[in-house]
């Protein structure tokens, strides 16, 4: 536990486990006496995670009990371990202090004394809900309720009523007798897995006058009415103490693991899987000013969602995957649903699948899918049939492949699978236990490449393989080792089919940013994109140097896809949903020679003129999230070497040389984008007796001339106005 007294500039450790166990022990919760901030309660939690398992409590500290509940009465200068009535072997602990009665402290406490229970069993043999009435000196076990402690361990006491207690778990549990008895009647229409609860102080109503027959009874304290609940399904709000909830579905906080794209026109579709929120498909734009709404997306089923593949012949059929290789085929037109996970013959060894198992379509054989577990499977006939095309590609260490749990702990699997876009039959496979393989004949023979990797990457989790888009001998491999305590980015490239590998982690990627995905541009092999735990980066020189790309938040980026028609870069994040960088061709064309120029206007893509339906967005309030549509009209991308104070100007003229629009912008260093809506600007529009100013310019050829200081660059482009629209 760390403390700052200067607003976060400097920090001092005030509570930690001593000795060798300190490295495996952290602080799981801290709460304060609301009437005296010098009184602090904190919980220490010993825990050690590996890529294949985790241990906690005395099992993580060689029998030494260093966890538990601690109290300080002098702002953290000194601490006392509290023990009266508490188990001696503790795991994760959550704490809460009653604001209405600060001497009441409550804990939800994990203990394996007497043995562990199944993860779906919310009852504990020795742990559970504990209550102290004297500031932590003496504790009473009120209940054995303790849902999946490592995942939850959250408890809240209502600030207006110390008898009202909430415990968070698969459901929201509530007690009105100080923690003795709990019920689940407040979770109707609430997504499972509750992780966060905020209770608004002062939201409790005034006590009601006692009824005549109850005048001799003490008044029943009211409970706080306003609650904010965070679950795996988002944020919910109640103004009725949990008896009714609103889902705050206007927060773009989706956690996408993987995405894929189709070529629907005019707006391609994006399909992907989310953490505990199924698989979904939706448009990259809509023909309405309402923008992209939640209702524009279709649920494709599943539990946790991961890979989704579009059927190559039927736009309504999808192959989606949820945890542990659970592949299913769904038709959103007919409602057909088929479960298709490969199963071994009776009496044979079970297949192992990761929580997030690779499922990819063949680039060369329409209708063929590849699925990876501890082996690689070839799925055919709409995934109805499968064949095993590899041996067990993992180390198959029984000491590491038999961890119990939810399935997220499965280990010893192929985690990354890639097919060459250039050479049929060429597949690359990487495992979570650090093996790398290649086959050039669709699995008839596999060659191990692990020993060819740099020493520091051997044995590390292979998170992504990217096959080169021009050369079959080129591939990129990204590993990460944060599960082993190493956060360094690890990316290498081969140009000889895997015989040798060179690092492409140049300057610009933070040393503390584990990598989740790497992509090579579809046309320019020097242009690379990398998604890390701290945002998106691009390299224009094959990895020698990197730069943070655009205004993408410094959030974990789990997947990237480049659309082959629009050249959009689609970004899947863990916490900020999906983002799109429209038309990345300027990045593809940005050479060192261009970057040395004071300014440059990149070639302009053909512009399409349409009118969007008005929708209801102007009067709809802000309760619903609306994703932005792609920009209408023409997009101009300008490179500026350095800021000079000069204004950036673009003059647009038709084929006859007549001016139709003039655009201006502040010229910032780097790339700037200007959008022209295909309407004449006011300075060239005939104000009186002219044509309707809302009419688009006609189809035809146009030129755009950029001016920045003394630099001028001209580009030609085409405008195509949709049939039936009256133009100027």
Question: Helices and strands in order, then pairings?
Answer:
Blueprint: E1 2-3, E2 12-13, E3 25-33, E4 36-49, E5 54-56, E6 68-72, E7 80-82, E8 93-97, E9 105-109, E10 128-132, E11 140-143, E12 154-157, E13 165-168, E14 172-175, E15 194-199, E16 227-231, E17 234-238, E18 246-247, E19 256-261, E20 269-274, E21 279-283, E22 298-301, E23 308-310, E24 317-322, E25 326-331, E26 337-339, E27 359-361, E28 369-372, E29 376-380, E30 385-388, E31 414-419, E32 427-431, E33 436-439, E34 447-448, E35 461-467, E36 475-481, E37 486-494, E38 502-503, E39 515-520, E40 528-532, E41 535-539, E42 547-548, E43 557-562, E44 569-573, E45 578-581, H1 585-589, H2 592-595, E46 599-601, E47 607-609, E48 634-640, E49 647-654, E50 659-666, E51 670-676, E52 700-708, E53 711-721
Parallel strand pairs: 47-53
Antiparallel strand pairs: 1-2, 3-4, 4-5, 4-6, 6-7, 8-9, 9-10, 10-11, 12-13, 13-14, 15-16, 16-17, 17-18, 19-20, 20-21, 21-22, 23-24, 24-25, 25-26, 27-28, 28-29, 29-30, 31-32, 32-33, 33-34, 35-36, 36-37, 37-38, 39-40, 40-41, 41-42, 43-44, 44-45, 46-48, 48-51, 49-50, 49-52, 52-53
